[in-house]
Amino acid sequence: MVVLAIGAGVFSLLQSLIAPVLPTIQQELHTSQNTATWVLTAYLLSASIFTPVLGRVGDMVGKRRTLVAVLTALAVGLLLAALAPTIELLILARAVQGAGGAVFPLAYGIIRDEFPRARVAGAISTLSAIIAAGGGLGVILAGPIVSTLGMRWLFWLPMVTVLVTALAAHRFVPESPVRTPGRINWAATLLLSGWLVALLLGVSQGTSWGWGSPAVLTLFAVAVVLLGLWVRLEMRSANPLIDMRMMRLPAVWTTNAVAFLFGAAMFAAWAFIPQLAQTPPSQGYGFGASVSQAGLLMLPMLVAMFIVGILSGRMAPFFSFRAQLAAGSVLSAVACAVLAVAHDRAWEVAVGGGLLGLGIGLAYATMTNLVVEAVPVTQTSVASGMNANIRTIGGSIGAGVMSSLVTAQLGIAGLPLEAGYTTGFATFAVISIVAAGAALLVPRVRKAELQPAAA
Q: Which residues cross the membrane (predicted)?
């Protein structure tokens, strides 16, 4: 459990560790702002492809073997990033690091294969809490690391940790006895990669290129066409990469719908709470906080999501995963509403963040548990990988929409007006309410089935 938690936690940390220091990367590598954002985009695109594909590989050839390979690739990517003399090599290194996204589904699959059934739900909840907290912890750690050690240590420190984790995985994690016969469907892999890249590239560049620009509209059209071809191929294939019958299971598609909507609200808040805090008070709002100070404002969120995430599996016999998911979405809606109307003082933002942390902690743990319980043991990794991917897609779209709403009107020195944040957070409060409604569509699980899963 320790090995899996460290591996997944480090990759989750890397998702948010770089975003706050993009201006520093831009300055040190002498590049433009648009080029520097590709450090994030390359990581996102790579992870979206590798997460489900390598999850499927792990189900086929062995999860421990695949986990060690994935951690090794992540360490290589971190080494390349730490040594990168140019922005082009740094972007390439981040693309290599994206292979680490498969740590999530592989870890969930190993837990289901190796742990006693009575401990599976609690272990998945704990791992989900660590992943969620890691995603926010990067915002807090980025500033102190850069100010004390320098930008390169954002990669050196995780690299050492990942290498030790890979060795520990090889030594202590047993090879999973559950295997799924088959081979990789390369045509399906290419189509999956194609529509994910087209969709996420269009979303990530929509703000800078223009949402109505020919390039963005073309990317969206390509994504729709390739998505249709991919679904058709998978439905007809005797050896699908992603089994569409599994994706159509009521518990799976409803949970994935919530993941998409909840991910949009979650990533929008994560990305823009620090930006709001860093806005100078001369704009009529904001606190003029540094990167480190803005990160500390996220601390209540991290503490709340970690504690609630760990408790989620243990509450299941009394408070079902379905009910927890709906409650998490409602808490997210309340948090976004609070942030929309009350952000004049730091403690108000901290309260809103804490409420959001409660919602994230519940939702992260329950979504994974609901999907894992619903699919055959031979498809655990690929199913949880697709759930993580759908959450990421929702998050990318949410961050893009939030960015458009916040920057729709600019004031002094080109900074957003306060109304943009109010509109943005209010919009995602509504989206979170829709997510709560979708959570109620998740099929009920009988209490007798929950008792052995989360005792």
A: 33-54, 66-85, 91-111, 123-147, 153-172, 184-203, 209-231, 251-273, 293-313, 325-343, 349-372, 393-415, 421-442
Q: What is the DSSP letter of 416?
A: B
Instruction: Please state, in angstroms and rounded to a whole number, the distance separating the CA atoms of residues 321 and 144.
Output: 37
Residues 6+ apart with CB under 8 A from 18: 25, 39, 40, 43, 94, 138, 142, 154
Q: Is the separation of the CB atoms in 346 and 295 below 8 Å?
A: no
List helix spans (H) across 62-97: 63-83, 87-97
Which residue type sits at 52?
P
pLDDT at 447: 43
Alpha helices in 115-243 (DSSP H): 117-148, 153-172, 186-209, 214-236
Q: Three-state DSSP class for 410?
A: strand
Q: Tell me: the pLDDT tens digits for 61-108?
A: 888 999 999 999 999 999 999 999 999 999 999 999 988 888 988 998
Residue bearing tokens 């309340």? 334
Burial, 152: exposed, middle or buried (Cβ in 10 Å; 0-12, 13-18, 19+)?
A: middle
Per DSSP, the three-state class of 336 is helix
306/129 Cα distance (integer angstroms): 5
